[in-house]
């Protein structure tokens, strides 16, 4: 009798397997896991996200936490949020934090004085100890940004309206002239 075993892999395990035999970097891994289509060094992501993706200081599952460059991390870093444990603690999946490896469910804690995720500490290895303080830009979300428009009507009040950023219109439109 012949038995066949089928193993079910999570999306993160599938992606991890794809990246295992390549030169591992945080940017392509975060792009693949988050589906946020930004390229270039990690420290450029915040600026490149402007106008394309919403950005903020509240963690959400699937968002990318964007680390600022520092002397021991000159290209910055990106990690994808996999769980929000509380307002100041999240879990992330990331590549190359430990050189050449993908680490999953790593604890990251907000230690910023204003509770705005501009400074974080990252779990060391498989311990519950947290490492040094790292500066961050914040979170990049998969959704389109929301623009705020203030309208003045000549009176004493202002009205605020929010709408998604408009998408560019294709250069060619169908010919709808009646023949």
UniProtKB/TrEMBL annotation:
Residues 157-179 are annotated as: Disordered. Residues 1-121 form the Peptidase C51 domain. It holds the Pfam family CHAP. This is Peptidase C51 domain-containing protein.
């Amino acid at each position: 009798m012949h038995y066949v075993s089928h193993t079910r892999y999570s999306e993160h395990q599938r992606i991890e397997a794809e990246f295992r035999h390549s030169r591992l970097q945080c940017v392509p891994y975060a792009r693949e896991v988050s589906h946020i289509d930004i390229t270039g060094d990690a420290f450029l992501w915040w600026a490149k996200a402007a106008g394309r993706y919403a950005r903020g200081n509240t963690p959400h599952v699937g968002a990318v936490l964007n680390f600022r460059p520092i002397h021991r991390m000159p290209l910055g870093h990106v990690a994808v949020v996999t769980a929000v444990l509380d307002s100041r603690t999240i879990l992330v999946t990331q590549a190359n934090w430990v050189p050449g490896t993908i680490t999953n469910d790593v604890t990251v804690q907000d230690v910023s004085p204003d509770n705005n995720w501009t400074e974080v500490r990252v779990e060391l290895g498989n311990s519950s100890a947290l490492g040094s303080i790292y500066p961050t830009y914040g979170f990049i979300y998969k959704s389109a940004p929301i623009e705020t428009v203030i309208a003045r009507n000549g009176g004493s009040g202002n009205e605020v309206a929010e709408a998604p950023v408009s998408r560019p219109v294709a250069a060619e439109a169908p010919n709808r002239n009646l023949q």
